[in-house]
Amino acid sequence: MKNKLLNLMQKPVKLIINRLPARWRENLISGIRMRMKNVYAESREQIDQRVNLFLLQEGMLIFWGILALIAVASGILIYQTFVPRDIVFERNSFGGGEKEVSVILKEEDQEKEYFFVLEEQQLSEEEEEDQKEEFFQELEDQMAGQNPSLQKVQDSLNFDDAIDGWPLFITYVTEESDYIQWDGSLGEVEQELEEKGYVDTTVAVSAEYGSYHWTNTYAIHIIPKEKVKNTSPFTKAIAMLKELEKNTRGEKYYNVPDSAEDVSIEVEEGFSLSGILLFGISALMLLIMHNVLGLKDQEKDCSKEMARDFPTIVHLLALYMGAGLSLASAIHRISLDYESRTEENKKYAFEEIIWMDRQLKLGAGQQEVCAQWGRKFKDPMYQKLSLTLQQVISKGSKEGKSLMNRMEEEAFQHRIDQAKKEGEEASTKLLFPMIVLLGTVMVLVMFPAVAQFQGF
Fold first, then answer.
1. 67-74: long-range contacts (C-beta < 8 A, 24 or more apart)?
2. What CA–CA distance (Å, rounded) separates 200 from 174?
3. Does residue 370 carry a pLDDT above 80?
């Protein structure tokens, strides 16, 4: 079942890869093959299998990743624009007025369209009280006009006959027309302000819409201009939010206006379609880059491993050939020793030694095998070893022994240089942990002195 599912998922990817332009596909395959040849000591057929598998895996990641993103985005879009399948008529909310709707009535071959009127939604007693409270709160802010509030009045009040978003018609009746006139402007209050420092009065408000009739009375406190302090719009908005929260604590849900004065009010959405798409694309690109960079890291690790194995290979060749073994016998002995180890990780250089042993057993020429073996490596050390082995074959065992001794000396010097290089790299990697430990030690040393100095 698992294999069938895997094959089913691979089919569209294989089709897309085969439909790619031949030049693109060949450049892509050759690039991956070049990197894998530097990591795996395998035959061309095995390398090609690894290349095809890697390309197929990357293709599946891209193809099914994009499909998953499209599916998630489509699901979110459908959720956001969800419409019930059942026939649902939606009334206009309070203040929206009536609306006309039509339905198609069918009976066998007969069909008739019927129009009827939907009245707006009626408010329950609790809803009416909530709406009334919200309305008079907004009206209070509107009436204040340029003043900080109705308790700190210094300029004219705003007596508009309506509030945006509300269907009610508003009328105002002032207690003392000498203090506040019909249009909201202040009357003769200077003398009383000089005597008392303030003037108190009231304004009765009546709001009507259809069968709804709401009334309220506002206390007005007039003070001289110099005693008024400017209030930040943000302070007003925060005060409004706190007041609204306090007045709606009996409700599980309540509405918050989208603005207060000149300050807009917004909330952060739980999820964003663009944000999810951006996150998904970023994650997909990171996965692809991780796999591609993994090939580069494997190539670097393989290069370091070959540099560490080079002195060992030279030493073993010099040892066996110095003991009187032929080149073919020395290579065969090294192959047997390597295959007898229980290590799981294969080593590129030793795997190529096994390849040499197999070629020599099949009867290939020693010089040709050594030449082919040297061409498998990019490192000049191995190429030089390949040329040295060819000279050993052509000059005989006596001169070959001296050549291998010189090669072993160079390999030993290379091992010293490699150890120095790895030591420098290790010291660089340890720099950050050492800084962290230094900071920790400084805190441990300084804390008692600082605590004693501050009198803890």
1. 68/280, 69/277, 69/280, 69/281, 69/284, 72/276, 72/280, 73/273, 73/276, 73/277
2. 12
3. yes
Share the mean pLDDT of the chain.
Answer: 79
For residue 252, the tally of other CB atoms under 10 A from its CB is 5
Could you read off the pLDDT of 181-232 as tens digits, one per residue? 888 888 877 777 777 788 888 999 999 988 889 999 999 888 887 644 556 6
Max intra-chain CA distance, the chain: 129
User: Kind of pairing, strands 212-222 and 99-107?
Assistant: unpaired
CA–CA distance, 135 with 145 (Å, rounded to integer): 16
In this structure, how many other beta carbons lie within 10 angstroms of the beta carbon of residue 343?
A: 8
Between the two ends of the chain, the Cα-to-Cα distance in Å is 70
Mean pLDDT, rounded, for 391-413: 79
Distance set, CA 281 to CA 64, 135, 262, 270, 272 (Å):
12, 47, 38, 19, 14
How far, in Å, CA of 224 to CA of 396, rounded? 117
Using CA of residue 145, residue 147, residue 153, residue 156, what is the dihedral sign? negative
CA separation for the pair 57, 63 (Å, rounded): 10
pTM above 0.70, yes or no: no
Q: What is the pLDDT of residues 296-338, one digit of tens each?
A: 777 777 777 888 888 888 888 888 888 888 888 888 888 888 8
Q: Measure Cα distances from 278 to 70, 74, 218 in Å.
A: 12, 15, 52
